[in-house]
Design brief:
single chain; Rossmann fold; 7 domains; SAM-dependent_MTases_sf
């Protein structure tokens, strides 16, 4: 069963966003979702929050939480009940959670309670998840009625002493509960002297509504008051009640009885609930609004004597609302929304001040001219084919114009007429075109001003579903006209590449799509869009050898569209045979000329008409055609008599944005700049904007808002040059961009350093831009192995960059030996001079720096620089806790020489830690200096406790033979300043209070996983207790948001024991999987399986044991002990010479 999800819960947080409280929202941290359903009447959600317990949400609005519900339930119930002299019969309308009923039954006089709620789901769900509220619904005094409250009230006139309405907010069906007919029914259903209370909204948000309610109820009841309570999880932390009585002169603020068992309500609170803050009292009693005026209201006061600007908005499509909202921010503006369908125009303008709607057919020239002439400016957001007619009407009426579309030849031909009329016609001011122009002009002008040249200009933009919403076969959903989207795929394209003009026919366009890298989080493809060649002139970059403006889609999209094109489904010509009597399969048969409408015949014909790169791709695309329904037996519903529009109708149903889904707009300019000194740099300007699941789409906002801004600037006279204009100049671009950035829609501008090059991907031409990086952090055995593996297979497409904090490769296995035996310490630190000599020349590089933190697509170093990555491998291992520090060879070799000297001087040496490092150190000391007294202290009962107890027995036998003493099962208290090192005797304190006397302590414990750099990118991937990095079986980190980040070796929680051999196996799996991801073969990823733990453990100069744990829980371990004779002293270096020869061949100076 799939985990529960809900549109209002994103990234573990519930968000309550509503037009009822614009500009503010409530958020709660969600532990888990408990219940989601669509009842007959509303959306029902229950989740467990981190700080408020279980939370009931109806239609996206919090109804109650376990933590604070009592402050609402007690007040809405006790205010009317405790001001009534003898309430016996009580009706609760709404309140299916049971909280009000619980409070009603606290009154001893109450004999009967009826709960009337229209939605049984609320009652059912509350019984399961809010039992402390709903438990008394089963009381014998309570009757639950599932039905319409209006009907129930009408059937029970003069019945109840108190009626309590626990309603939701006044939107949708609940709006009727705030209107006069409902209050009249309440009045009539009351017995003589009866009281009511209803949910009365918030003083801070709905004061005018509250004033209307009180005035209206005073026309029905002799007594009507407003009271309020505080509750943290309701909007603005406050909610009120309209409390009324049939009894003339009743003081509703006076409690008549003492109540116990309450958490919020008491006598004083009852009385004070009716005492309002001054701004509320004045409005309700005197009708004056004394609240401060700001924003639009303040502007309205300031502009009271200014002439009104009249704007005509043509169109009611996806992008029009953000444009309209921006325009009416200025109270001097009056907006008329015109659409052929009046209802659509009204819907677009709903809730907007200074707005009206009208029906207008732009094909009627007289009507169009009349409306355009009656306004100061017209915004044309209708299909571009109508723009010329609109502009002609504007020229006649001397009305300014704004559009978001490209300037067509028909529009450009009107330039002189527009100038003669003195009007500005501002075009291309949406997203693309629009925002893209603003930042292209900015960067190009800045580069030219500094003496630089634009060698390459690449600009790609895509309107896409957000990654989590892109699961259909095309990886696409429609945020604007489906027909426009598909027709754009048939446009021919022209652009410059390396000084040559390339022209692509529309039918071939999808074949020119290429993978395009922006960040590792996205698998984009890019293809050219329309004619980019004029932009060398438009943008004043004659020096540019490459100029491409294009479109971004997710990988897999072009291949799918190419098949639709090849099969004829994007044909807009009328087909007289396309009738409703045909099935989709029969339409497909006729379209492609198949032998029959059977699925097998259709697939065979498709494979004969289309070329697929391999069988798996053919299967993917044909499965997608089946998903669309092109093989189905359902009857087709032709649209416009052609295949294109009929397909559009089908896709619109399948590929629409569902509730809670969001879109993504990605726009990036890439400038390859050559400076006067010949140095080249890559500059980028990037917009990554996401739509709101409960607000505007990113596409609507990024098109509509720039259009609205340009409109206001034209109205203000900032943009005034007459004629056909486009945002290609500083004078136009700068003021629009400044306001756009203030609105939060600016592009992020970066300089790509030399180590951060990314592919520029010029379609249809081999790109000569530098290759993207695969970064490996940690250059020990495991990290070095990854570099070797990747550089051999991926050097043609990627740079392999090793980030290593240490100056030299550290042969860690030799450290116990060089701690004891002089003469080898310099060989344990191998220079990186020629470490990856087997790799192709130029394919690898080493950066000596500390990786401070990892961010999406880049590693931030301790020197302030950053390194970009397409893929990242963490092989940082373990080390001392705290901030990473680098080490230099001279410092480390001195440390070991000092330790050798201390060992030589001491007669009693204690090794703290009974792992491999401690055991090898202790055995080497006894072999090197048998007279030394050596003690090993270990915190656990067994040495090498990760392994089968047999290994402990083997080591203990060796210790006994060598005369090494042990203290097991005791933790050591290590001083913060460390143990003394002056040769005198001191005591080591143990956990049981005893002490061990010694002259030298060698600490061989305390290493922790070096996972801290990953916390900035993905804190959830680091275990908070162990600090190991959580990984998937593919060795990708556990956070699915970053499939390009891997962790291996000792820092990763792979299930394997911490040793070099498993790390090497992990290096192979990670390297293979990176290669498969780069090649798009996601299904070929390998899984890492942890092998049975084993180890090769040196036990002094001449002895070694190879040990492996049992392969089954009940099995026996295997081991083999070996004797190692040394012919010369040089053979005692614990493998230093071999490692040196492998990592630094040809280098003979061991002090380097």
């Amino acid at each position: 069963m799939a985990p529960l999800s809900h549109p209002s819960i994103q990234d573990g947080w519930f968000r309550e966003i509503s037009s009822q409280w614009p500009g503010q929202a409530m958020t709660l941290k969600v532990n888990k979702i408990l219940h989601v359903e669509k009842s007959l009447y509303q959306d029902v959600l229950v989740f467990e929050s981190e700080t408020f317990g279980n939370v009931l949400v109806l239609d996206g609005v919090i109804q109650c939480t376990e933590r604070d519900e009592f402050s609402y339930q007690e007040m809405i119930a006790h205010l009317p009940l405790n001001s009534h002299p003898n309430p016996e019969k009580v009706l609760v309308i709404g309140g299916g959670d049971g909280g009000v009923v619980r409070e009603v039954l606290k009154h001893a006089s109450v004999k009967e309670v009826v709960l009337c709620d229209i939605d049984e789901a609320v009652i059912r769900v509350s019984k399961q998840y809010l039992p402390h509220m709903s438990s008394l619904l089963s009381s014998p005094k309570v009757t639950v009625y599932i039905g319409d409250g209006f009907k129930f009230l009408a059937e029970h006139e003069g019945t109840y002493d108190v009626i309590i309405t626990d309603s939701s907010d006044p939107v949708g069906p609940a709006e009727s509960l705030f209107q006069k007919p409902y209050f009249q029914l309440l009045h009539d259903a009351l017995a003589p002297g009866g009281n009511i209370s209803t949910q009365g909204e918030c003083l801070w948000l709905h004061l005018p509504l509250i004033s209307e309610l009180r005035s209206m109820t005073l026309g029905i009841f002799p007594v009507s008051e407003y009271a309020y309570t505080t509750i943290p999880t309701y909007p603005s932390g406050q909610i009120g009640f309209i409390v009324c009585s049939k009894e003339v002169g009743r003081d509703l603020s006076k409690p008549l009885r003492k109540l116990s068992d309450t958490r919020y309500y008491n006598d004083a609170i009852h009385a004070s609930a009716f005492i309002l803050p001054e701004f509320g009292r004045v409005l309700l009693s005197e009708g004056k609004n004394i609240q401060p005026k700001f924003g639009r209201e303040a502007l309205a006061v300031a502009n009271v004597n200014k002439p009104t600007k009249k704007i005509l908005l043509l169109g009611s499509g996806f992008v029009a609302r953000p444009c309209a909202e921006y325009i009416i921010r200025n109270p001097s503006n009056y907006l008329t929304i015109a659409c052929r369908t009046l209802e659509k125009a009204k819907a677009l303008g709903e809730g907007l001040p200074n707005t009206s709607a009208l029906s207008l057919d732009v094909n009627s020239t007289p009507d169009l001219e009349a409306q355009v002439a009656a306004h100061d400016l017209v915004i044309s957001l209708i299909p571009y084919t109508f723009h010329a007619a609109v502009i002609k009407a504007a020229i006649k009426g001397k009305t300014n114009v704004v559009t978001t579309s490209y300037v067509s030849p028909a529009i450009q031909a009107l330039d002189e007429e527009a100038k003669a009329a003195g009007i500005i016609v501002m075009n291309e001011i949406g997203l693309d075109p629009g925002i893209d122009h603003l930042y292209a002009i900015k960067t190009i002008n800045e580069v030219h001003a500094k003496g630089g040249k634009i060698k390459q200009f690449l600009s790609y933009c895509g309107g896409l579903p957000a990654p989590e919403c892109s699961g259909n076969p095309l990886g696409y959903k429609f945020s604007w006209s489906s027909r426009g989207v598909l027709l754009a795929l048939l446009n021919s394209a022209s652009y410059y590449s390396e000084g040559k003009q390339l022209d692509i026919a529309g039918k071939d366009l999808m074949g020119y799509a290429k993978p395009y890298f922006i960040t590792p989080a996205f698998a984009f493809v890019a293809y050219p869009n329309r004619d980019s060649t004029p932009f060398r002139e438009f943008y004043n970059i004659p020096e540019a050898e490459t100029v491409v403006r294009g479109t971004l889609r997710y990988q897999g999209f072009p291949e799918f569209i190419k098949v639709l094109v090849d099969l004829g489904w994007l044909d807009a010509s009328e087909k007289d045979w396309l009738k409703e009597s045909l099935t989709w399969a029969e339409v497909m048969q006729k379209t492609i000329g198949a032998d029959s409408a059977s699925e097998s015949a259709l697939i065979a014909r498709i494979k004969s008409l289309c070329t697929f790169p391999d069988e798996s791709e053919a299967t993917r695309i044909i499965s997608g055609l089946k998903w669309i329904g092109l093989f189905s037996s359902e009857k087709v519903k032709p649209r416009a008599g052609n295949l294109l529009d009929t397909l559009c109708a089908q896709l619109e149903g399948l590929m629409k944005y569902e509730q809670g889904e969001r879109d993504l707009v990605m726009l990036q300019h890439k400038f390859i700049v050559e400076w006067q000194d010949g140095k080249q740099e890559t500059l980028t300007s990037t917009l990554e904007a996401y739509g709101s699941p409960v607000g505007h789409s990113a596409m609507a906002l990024t098109v509509g808002l720039p259009c609205g801004i340009a409109t206001q600037l034209v109205l203000d006279g900032v943009l005034s040059a007459p004629g056909i204009q486009r945002p290609y100049t500083t004078e136009i671009c700068d003021p629009i961009r400044k306001i756009l950035e203030a609105e939060g829609l600016g592009l992020v501008e970066k300089v790509a350093l030399r180590c951060r090059w990314e592919t520029s991907s010029v379609p249809a031409e081999e790109s000569n831009a530098p290759k993207p990086n695969i970064v490996v952090i940690g250059g020990s055995y495991v990290g070095g192995s990854v570099v070797d593996l990747l550089s051999s297979s991926l050097h043609r497409t990627h740079n392999i960059v090793l980030i290593e904090k240490n100056s030299h490769f550290q042969h860690l296995f030799a450290f116990p030996r060089v701690s004891v035996v002089p003469g080898f310490e310099n060989r344990a630190f191998v220079p990186f001079t020629n470490s990856f000599h087997a790799s192709p020349p130029g394919s690898t590089s080493v950066i000596h720096a500390i990786a401070e933190k990892i961010l999406p697509g880049q590693v931030v170093l301790d020197n302030g620089q950053s390194v970009s990555y397409e893929y990242l491998v963490l092989a940082t291992g373990t080390g001392k806790p705290g901030r990473l520090v680098s080490s230099q060879k001279a410092v480390e070799t001195k440390h070991f020489r000092d330790l050798q000297e201390s060992i030589a001087k001491a007669s009693h040496i204690t090794v703290i830690g009974g792992g491999a490092y401690g055991i090898q150190t202790a055995m080497d000391i006894k072999d090197h200096a048998p007279s030394k007294k050596v003690t090993v202290i270990h915190s656990r009962p067994n040495l090498m406790s990760r392994f089968h107890p047999k290994l402990h027995e083997i080591v203990m036998e060796k210790f006994k033979a060598a005369g090494i003493e042990t203290v097991l099962g005791q933790r050591v208290s290590i001083p913060e300043e460390g143990f003394p090192n002056d040769g005198s005797e001191f005591a080591i304190s143990l956990a049981d209070g005893t002490e061990v006397k010694t002259e030298l302590a060698i600490v061989c414990i305390g290493a922790v996983p070096l996972s801290a750099p990953l916390l900035a990118l993905s804190p959830t991937s680091v275990d908070p207790q162990t600090k190991y990095i959580k990984v998937k079986p593919t060795l990708q980190i556990a956070d699915s948001s970053y499939p390009n980040v891997f962790a291996i070796g000792d820092v990763a929680d792979t299930g394997a024991h911490k040793a070099a051999r498993p790390g090497m196996s992990q290096a192979k799996v990670a390297s293979h999987n990176i290669e498969m991801l780069i090649k798009g073969k996601n299904s070929d990823l390998q899984t890492y399986y942890a092998d049975t733990p084993g180890i090769g453990l040196s036990l002094g100069f001449h002895s070694k044991v190879r040990f492996r744990n049992p392969s089954t829980p009940d099995g026996e371990p295997s081991w083999r002990q070996a004797f190692k004779p040394f012919k010369t002293k040089g053979n005692m270096d614990a493998g230093c010479r071999k490692v040196w020869d492998r990592r630094a061949p040809g280098v003979k100076d061991y002090d380097l």
